[in-house]
Amino acid sequence: MSGTPRGGKLAARTNMSRHGKDFYARIGAIGGRKGTTGGFAANHDLARIAGAKGGRISRRRKVTEHITAEATALQAQQVAVEPTITQEELDLAA
After folding, report:
1. What is the pLDDT of residue 92?
2. What is d(CA 50, CA 40) in angstroms, rounded to the nearest whole number?
3. Residue 72 CA from chain centroid, whole number
4. Under a CB-based contact definition with an 8 Å cutoff, are residues 12 and 6 in contact?
5. CA distances from 25 to 32, 76, 83 (A)
6. Would residue 60 be called left, alpha or beta, if left means φ above 0 and alpha means ψ between -120 and 50 degrees?
7. What angle is formed at CA 64 by the lines to CA 78 and CA 59, rounded to 5 degrees?
8. What are 18-40's pLDDT values in tens digits?
9. CB distance 37 to 43 below 8 Å
């Protein structure tokens, strides 16, 4: 029954009966000790450099740019709605 949930439970029970109740804790600890990457916690300066690179290439707009773009769009809408009357039109209407 390999590859099924039931088979996995039976294999786990067999492993624990043969190798002790702490079998999975022991093999997990061995795997953790063998790790060599360390991640960013091992090198603070590298993490700082990588974060700066990510910030420079970010696709998110800055808050001020976003507000300016919205304000420009609103002004464009208002200008389009407001009719402009020339002096000639005023003279003709009078």
Report:
1. 75
2. 9
3. 29
4. no
5. 10, 65, 77
6. beta
7. 110
8. 999 999 999 999 988 887 777 77
9. no
Please report which confidence band the pLDDT of residue 8 belongs to, taking 50, 70 and 90 as the band edges: very high
Give per-residue pLDDT as tens, 44-90.
898 899 888 888 887 776 666 667 777 777 777 665 555 677 777 77
Question: What ranges do the domains of the chain cover?
Answer: 5-93
Question: Residue 55, SS3?
Answer: helix
- Residue at token pair 């790790």: 35
Identity of the amino acid at 72: T
* pTM for the predicted model, two decimal places: 0.38
Q: For residue 30, give the amino acid letter.
A: I
Q: What residue spans of the chain are helical by DSSP H? A: 5-19, 23-34, 44-56, 63-81, 87-93
